[in-house]
Design a protein that fits this description.
The chain has 15 helices and eleven strands. The chain is an alpha/beta fold. The chain has a domain of 166 residues: Vaccinia Virus protein VP39 (Rossmann fold).
């Protein structure tokens, strides 16, 4: 039996989707099948009304569409199988051969997109389930060494694809956007909704009562209602020692931020700029400050550095591999400003790193671990304090902020 090939919306991501599987057999049976909850989660559930209608039709007309299986595991037809088991109905199975579970997941997604008219939120939600799979396949595709000339069995298209993949690094979020047939910004907004949206907001968007953009706005608005961090000048005096290295990602007021993605990167609280400048940092006479800044708050960051007693020296760039928004140019990077006080000694020449680091931005409110690693490598003998921390990197770090609770501070 030949199977119907489904059309797929978003063909630009075909490179990362499994090929059509090999059909092994078609048989009518009532045998017990296995349900993999990971596979089942990739299939949008029917509403109560849709399920009741399907059940009525199957009881009256029988199960005409075969249940797709891999081995004894269902890959498509979970609802049909559940109804068949409940009412002792016969059904046909069609067996497919896949190379791996990852290929099964990609095929399920492709099959669902091709056969169901899913709204944008649901398409992105399903695609995000595949983010680790897509990231791994993209990584493997990028590290394939391009040939200087086509190999004996290569078609011209194979040679072009191998070399263009190496020359043009692939972005996981862009691939997911292509797969779901939406924009890069829509993927970012759905990630935010899934990460921080209230149950009420999630329910509304699933019912189709609100758009992705409206749900995103509601989620951000709810975050802003979190009580602002009220740090008194005396708050940091709880530390009984000073620190020679300060690492900070300030919670800037949203009015300073011109790009929505910049707001997402900040914590779910903010501080007035005047209060930030008044903080009495427990810092040594000879010390270094590493201060995160986006382009839109660069002038404020330099003022803050000066207010804390540091003199600007240089900066590092984090290339986030994602093009955001912006009033003049579309921002793709953040800066880690470096300032010193006193006679702080620069790192040894053999441990100095390049000023630009490239890593795809995630949905977490954290900066890449790479920066912690390089700080510890360049400044191994300093005492570390991270302000406004969203995590504690390791026990060498003292942290302060109302996102994390540490042994030193529960703010």
């Amino acid at each position: 039996m030949s199977k119907n090939k489904k059309n797929f919306k978003g063909s630009g991501a075909d490179l990362f989707l499994s090929p059509e599987p090999t059909t092994l057999s078609l048989e009518t049976t009532t045998k017990e099948l296995t349900i993999n909850p990971v596979f089942q989660a990739l299939i949008p559930p029917l509403s109560d009304e849709e399920y009741a209608q399907l059940e009525e039709n199957l009881i009256e007309n029988g199960i005409r569409e075969a249940i797709s299986i891999w081995g004894d595991t269902i890959v498509d037809g979970h609802n049909r199988y559940e109804i068949a088991t409940k009412h002792n109905l016969q059904y046909a199975t069609i067996s497919y051969e896949f190379d791996s579970e990852d290929d099964v997941k990609l095929w399920i997604f492709k099959n669902q997109i091709g056969r169901r008219n899913l709204p944008p939120f649901e398409r992105v939600r399903l695609a995000l389930h595949l983010k680790p799979v897509i990231a791994e396949k993209a990584k493997l595709q990028q590290i394939r060494k391009p040939s200087d000339s086509p190999q004996q069995n290569d078609t011209p298209e194979d040679f072009v694809q191998q070399n263009s993949a190496k020359q043009n690094p692939l972005n996981t979020r862009d691939i997911i956007a292509d797969m779901a047939g939406v924009s890069h910004d829509t993927v970012s907004k759905v990630e935010k909704i899934l990460d921080a949206g209230t149950p009420e907001t999630l329910e509304k968007i699933k019912r189709g009562d609100i758009t992705v953009h409206k749900a995103y706005q509601d989620t951000r608005s709810q975050e802003r209602k979190v009580e602002s961090l009220d740090v008194k000048q005396s708050s940091l005096t709880i530390f009984d020692s000073n620190f020679s290295l300060i690492y900070a990602d300030p919670p800037w007021e949203s009015k300073f931020l011109t790009d929505e993605s910049e707001e997402d990167a900040n914590a779910s609280y903010s501080m007035k700029f005047s209060d930030l400048k008044k903080l009495m940092i427990p810092v040594s006479d000879d010390a270094i400050l590493l201060l995160w800044s986006s382009s839109s708050v660069l002038d404020k960051a330099l003022q803050l550095m000066s207010a804390w007693g540091f003199k600007y020296q240089t900066n590092m760039i984090w290339d986030k591999q994602q093009i955001g928004l912006g009033q003049y140019v579309r921002g793709q990077h953040e800066m880690l400003l470096i300032g010193i006080r006193g006679s702080f000694t620069p790192p040894e020449e053999d441990v100095r790193v390049g000023s630009v680091y490239s890593e795809e931005s995630s949905s977490q409110k954290t900066k890449p671990k790479w920066f912690y690693e390089q700080i510890e490598r360049m400044f191994p003998n300093e005492t570390y304090l991270e302000l406004f921390a969203s995590n504690k990197y390791n026990d060498r770090w003292t942290v302060f902020g109302n996102i994390v609770a540490s042994e030193e501070v529960d703010a």
